[in-house]
Amino acid sequence: MMKKLLLLSFFLIQNGLYAQNISKWRMGITFSVDQLNLAEGTYQSDYLVTLGTATGYRVDFDQFNYSLGFTGQYKFNDRLGLSTGLLYSNKDFTGAFDCSVCSVKPESKITGPRIIEQQFLSIPLSLDYSLSEGRLRPVLTGGFRNNIETKNDLEEYSEGYFLEGFLGASLNYDLAEKFNAGIGYRYQTALSDLYKTDDFKLRSHSVFLQVNYLLR
Known about the structure:
The protein is mainly beta.
C-alpha cells in the first residue's frame, strides 16, 4: 500500500512539474521591417571598400528589408523571460561600383548601380522585462543576434557571419487566455564586421509585430 502511495505521489509531482514547466513556455511568430544604414567607419558612411583603400561600392539602402521567423520564450516569473528564435533576414542594398584608381575614363569610374543581395539566418538571444503584470504590458528587451550568411552577392569579400547587439521596447496585449500580440521598436548595431576589407558597421531601426501562444 505504501509503495502504491509513493508511486502515485511521484506520478502527481512529475505531472505537476511538467505542467508548470510547459506553462512557462511561449512560442510565437515575429515580423519586422528593417531600415538599414551604416555607422561612420574608416572611410565613409555610405561606401564599402572591397580592395585597397579606393575600390568598392557606393551604398544606398533603398531596398525593402525585413526579418521573419519563429521565436520561443521561457518565463522565469511574471516579469522576466529569456527569448530565442530562428529568423530569415535580408539586408539588401543598391551598390554602384567605384574605382578611383582604375585606368578608365573619369565619367566611367562609377558603373551603373545594381542590387546587392544579402540574406541571413538569424538566431537572437535576449532578456525581456515586463514593466507591469496586467493584460496590457510594456516590455523592455535587450540582447544579441547571430547572423549566419546564406547568400551574398559579394561573398568573396564577406566573413560569412556577424554579430549584432540590440535594445528595444514593445507593447504586448493578451488577446485571449493563451494568445498575446505585440508591436514594438528595436535598434540593432553590428558588433563585428561583415566584410573583411572594411569597417562595415550596419545599423538597423526595426518596427516589429509578434504573436505568441502560451503552451500548457
